[in-house]
Specification:
It is built from 23 helices and 18 strands. It is α/β, with parallel strands linked by helices and 584 residues long. The radius of gyration is 33 Å and the shape is globular.
Length: 584
């Protein structure tokens, strides 16, 4: 016990001796003393700093997850050299079902520490973390003090689940701000619970937070105190290994089947993953494997006793008899993309997937009319702004490089649609894809087949960095893409990917849209014609000095020279429109 805690206990004991046993104050003081004495003050679990043992435990329980395993082994190595370790705050971010919570149990076992988990998803009351004041009826400490009492240790592994789904400010306070004191290494050595009201040392606790993503509204001050480790989804061959090592033996044990009663090879698992379980995690695969084994158990039990030794074999042909018709047929909406269609790449909390963008000419306006862009497909605010930027840049690009086709872009009402309209879509990473779709429609030429792209575009054509590269590449692989265009600033993310992910995919890194055009439109160059070069005209449309010397004409002069003679009706209508505008 620290001197502060001992002083509080002595004061409460002295106070308790003067109270009547039947008074309400007596029960409050008695409960308070119970909590103070229930915690194992200064008791720490003896840790195990053997690297080989920890590595064996982590590999036994989980396949893959290289980044997390390396970080835990580094943590153990530092403890082995120093003889003791301070607490850390780790934040595992990744899609559902990839093993973020379950690996925390393996971490606790490899460190020989106690394990405690609680979820803060939807939590809106600060008292859940920092406890209630003792003046309230039924008051009790927060989750962290309950953790110390339950684990009987001051250095457990504490998992705080679903941090990204924590509620924001409410009438009960702000839970994210309450976590700041808990997860700050400079403050948690004297954490103050509202109920206990004495300093508690949490500096030896290993905190592991989990979440599916980092929302925009997430507290940056809280994020600054965490070490973020991204946990990506699994590839097909990784899911096959996980099914063979963990899911199938577990399902077999749960259904009571013997090893020689069922037969299912890798080819069946591969078909099962591609047609039924395309999510990034393995929860869906686990459900399907359990369903297969339950069906197999039923087939065996319904036979006579003499025939129960027959093996139930699951093949690609009879797989649908066990799990039903395939859920996914193909991630490709088009086998061959026509003009005006481009495959972008999207990211979500459940993984990456192709994002098709379709553009069509809805209405061809008259000469001199103003065109527009209509968007549909549950596009979010950021994606709509990205479409407006891409539309503006596409008009500039077309005017500079193929002005003879600019009218179809400037005067037409265009319609941009992202299929699967019931699925909300947002984010800036579809910029270069929208520009490419617009130019493909203008040129009436499809882009290079089996090509996908991701990258934000600026008004000047700069291609900016995006996130979720691994998930997007995995989604592109599933769709059969062999060429990907991504921002130059994402080269580091590509270099960090495993060889198995990058195999068979050619990537082009681009920093400006002028580098995108020659790749997707093979056989075309993006050199601007001399007659319509931006350098030959001034801001007011008149010919520049260099153009005049060379005998060149400005675009405005050329258009005026080639313009057809106006009819009487057109002149009258133009005069009427001008008069109305002047009145306004």
């Amino acid at each position: 016990l620290t001197s502060e805690v001992q002083t509080v206990i002595d004061e409460e004991l002295s106070k308790l001796s003067f109270l009547d046993e039947n008074s309400s104050e007596f029960s409050v003081s008695r409960n308070y003393l119970d909590w103070l004495t229930a915690i194992k003050w200064g008791h720490y679990t003896d840790e195990n700093f053997e690297i080989k043992r920890a590595k064996t435990i982590l590999d036994e329980d989980h396949y893959g997850m290289k980044a997390i395993k390396e970080r835990i082994l580094e943590f153990i190595a530092v403890g082995q050299l120093q003889g003791s370790v301070q607490g850390k705050i780790l934040f595992f971010v990744g899609p559902p079902g990839v093993g973020k919570t379950s690996i925390a149990k393996s971490i606790a076992r490899s460190l020989n520490r106690k394990y405690f988990r609680f979820s803060v998803g939807g939590m809106s009351d600060v008292a859940e973390i920092k406890g209630h004041r003792r003046t309230y009826v039924g008051a009790m400490p927060g989750k962290l003090i309950q953790c110390l009492k339950k684990t009987e240790s001051c250095n457990p592994v504490v998992v705080i689940d679903e941090v990204d789904k924590m509620a924001h400010k409410s009438i009960h306070g702000d839970p994210q701000s309450a976590l700041l004191e808990v997860l700050d290494p400079e403050q948690n050595n004297s954490f103050l619970d509202h109920y206990l009201d004495v300093p508690v040392d949490l500096s030896k606790v290993l905190f592991i937070c989990t979440g599916n993503s980092i929302p925009h509204e997430f507290s940056q001050a809280l994020l600054d105190r965490m070490e973020v480790i991204e946990v990506s989804g699994y590839m097909t061959h990784e899911k096959v290994e996980i099914a063979k090592r963990y899911l199938m033996p577990k399902a077999q044990k749960d259904t009571g089947l013997k090893e020689d009663q069922t037969k299912m090879d890798e080819e069946v698992l591969d078909d099962l993953i591609r047609s039924y379980c395309r999510e990034s995690g393995v929860r869906g695969l686990q459900k399907m494997v359990e369903k297969i084994y339950r069906k197999a158990a039923f087939k065996i039990v319904e036979k006579d006793e003499a025939d129960r030794d027959e093996v139930v074999e699951v093949t690609s042909k009879n797989l649908s008899d066990f799990v039903g018709k395939p859920i996914y047929m193909s991630e490709r909406l088009y086998d061959t993309t026509p003009p005006g269609v481009v495959m972008g790449l999207s990211w979500s909390a459940s993984g990456g997937a192709p994002l098709y963008l379709e553009i069509t000419n809805r209405y061809r306006g008259a000469e001199g009319s103003q065109g527009s862009l209509i968007t549909t497909g549950s596009l979010g605010k950021v994606l709509q702004e990205s479409a407006s930027i891409a539309y503006s840049y596409a008009r500039v690009y077309a005017m500079q490089h193929f002005p003879e086709k600019i009218n179809s872009l400037v005067t037409s009402t265009l319609h941009l649609h992202a299929p699967q309209g019931a699925v909300p879509k947002d984010g800036p990473s579809a910029g270069i894809a929208i520009v490419s779709a617009l130019l493909s429609l203008v040129l009436n030429q499809p882009i290079r087949q089996n090509t996908a792209m991701t990258g934000e575009v600026s008004l000047k054509g700069k291609v900016l960095r995006v996130g979720g590269i691994k998930e997007k590449v995995l989604g592109a692989r599933r769709a059969g893409v062999n060429v990907i265009l991504m921002p130059e600033e994402n080269r580091r993310d590509w270099d960090e990917l495993e060889d198995a992910i990058c195999e068979g995919i050619k990537v082009h890194f681009v920093s400006h849209y002028s580098e995108v055009f020659p790749v997707i439109f093979e056989g075309r160059t993006d050199e601007a014609p001399a007659a319509y070069s931006p350098n030959t005209t001034t801001a007011d449309g008149t010919a520049s000095d260099d153009a005049k010397k060379s005998g060149g004409e400005s675009r405005a002069q050329a258009e005026k020279k080639d313009a057809p003679a106006l009819t009487l009706w057109q002149r009258l209508f133009g005069a009427f429109s001008t008069g109305q505008s002047a009145k306004k």
